[in-house]
Amino acid sequence: EVLGFLGPNGAGKTTTMQMLTGNLAPSEGAIHVCGVDLLERPKQAKSLLGYLPETPPLYREFTVDEYLAFAASLRRVARAEQPARVSRAKRRCGLKTAGGKLIGALSKGYQQRVGIAQAIVHNPQVVILDEPTAGLDPIQIREIRGLIRELGGEHSVILSTHILAEVEAICDRVQIMHQGKLVYSDTIANLNRLRRHHRLLVGLRRPPAPAELLAIPGITQATPNGADFIMISFDPANHPVDTLVKTAVEKSWGLFHLSPPTTNLEEIFVQLTQNEHDD
User: Fold this and answer.
1) Domains plus CATH for the chain?
2) What is the reported pTM?
3) % of the chain at pLDDT higher than 90
4) How many Å separate Cα 79 from the centre of its chain?
């Protein structure tokens, strides 16, 4: 699966990535990679990880084949196995015809593919990608997102990003950090069910004055929301939908739409972190 790891600046996201990859020792607590304690058995734990930092660790003067073979050797892949591992990583990352090309001559999108290839050349169980689409053009972003989705079929992928739409497009689960604390952890499907509670979006062809809507028992607020639409807030102990529909018909308001408002991931993120910002 693909786990989206979100957080605003200063949330502790980068620090967490550094600890997960063994580049920074935690001041307290423990880190286990597939059941292996990173602090007690760091070499074994790190062998289970593949990592692409925000700035890919590429050698521009190497060819793709040379670089991936070098990365495989650093990951202690047996020399006899290296050609097969390099070939598989290239195939999975769309680099089959790029093996003889200098990395410095590749586009940024293809350089990012090489960076991902080095992260999976030793076939790790967990792949950590830090801002993998940063600086790419829209076509490159779409291609890299497709690649990450494919990787999620064989690896546990942790995608660290600040791009909320990226999480919606790629991830199966999401965790959100704010000021060093985990404020949300669930599936994308459940996250997409998260709504601002106790609201209704009402479409009326002949909308009344807000005072008439507020006269309906249970309605606590009525706010215009574009042409012919009104956002209704209500008391959950006194749900107004039946009375609202009956009144709209009796008074010929022309009711044509009634539903809970959808909330995109960005709005949900603001909801989850707003209290901390207010403090």
Assistant:
1) 2-193 (3.40.50.300), 199-262 (3.30.70)
2) 0.74
3) 65
4) 36
Helix, strand, or coil here: 113?
helix
| 3-state SS track over 15-38 | HHHHHHCCCCCCCCCCCEECCEEC
Helix intervals (H) in 121-257: 138-151, 164-170, 188-193, 210-214, 241-250
Burial 149-182 (b: 16+ CB within 10 A, else e): eebbeebbbbbbbebbebbbbbbebbbbbbeeee
- Residues 244-267 as b or e (16 or more Cβ within 10 Å = b): beebbeeeebebeeeeeeebebee
Amino acid at 169: A
How far is Cα 175 from Cα 157, in angstroms, rounded to an integer? 13
φ/ψ (deg, to 5) at 99:
-55, -35
Question: Which tops the pLDDT comparison, 195 or 8?
Answer: 8
Rounded mean pLDDT, 258-269: 71
In angstroms, the CA 252 to CA 231 distance is 19
In whole angstroms, give the CA distance from residue 33 to residue 183.
22
Say whether 246 sits in a helix, a strand or coil. Answer: helix
Q: Is 100 helix (H, G, I), strand (E, B) or coil?
A: coil
Q: Is residue 53 predicted with pLDDT exceeding 70?
A: yes
Between 108-120 and 138-151, two packed helices, what is the crossing angle to 10 degrees? 10
SS3 77: coil
